[in-house]
Amino acid sequence: MTNKATTANDLQRAAGEGMVDERLGDAQGQAGQAPVVKTDFDIETAVKEVLRLAPIDADDITVSVSGGEVTLSGDVRTAEMKDLSGQIAQRVTGVTAVVNQLQVAQELLGAQGIVRWR
User: Is pLDDT at 69 greater than 90 in this prediction?
Assistant: First the structure.
């Protein structure tokens, strides 16, 4: 049985030691200082940026924010990517809660190419 925390750490290491932490710091401010995030738009922009920089395929992730609560929806390839996306979003300054509605998409190689389903 795979430990999800270990798998998330493995994903981080696969993209470079501490890459998520470094990129998160870069997206939030210089020298580890988090900027003041005041609006839902600011939070949404910051979450999208750190997800884009993370070792996950964030192309199919939709981010919405209301009152500091971030909702993640869309498809990711693995359960580990789903969990890591939620963990990354939670660390953004100004986020009060994360509702992780991401779905793990299955892929099937068929005559028409790759087909995804949930």
Answer: yes
Residues 6+ apart with CB under 8 A from 99: 69, 70, 71, 72
> What b/e sequence results for 52-75 when a residue is b if at least 16 CB atoms lie within 10 Å of its CB, and e otherwise?
ebbbbebeebebebeeeebbbeeb
pTM score above 0.70? no
Is the pLDDT reported for residue 30 higher than 90?
A: no
User: What is the Cα–Cα distance from 55 to 85, expressed in whole angstroms?
Assistant: 10
CA distance 36 to 28: 9
Summarised one tens digit per residue, pLDDT across range 37-66 is 579 999 999 999 999 999 888 889 999 999
Q: Which CATH architecture has domain 4-117?
A: 2-Layer Sandwich (3.30)
Please give the Cα distance from 50 to 42 (Å, whole number).
12
- C-alpha angle with apex 80: 78 to 86, nearest 5 degrees? 110
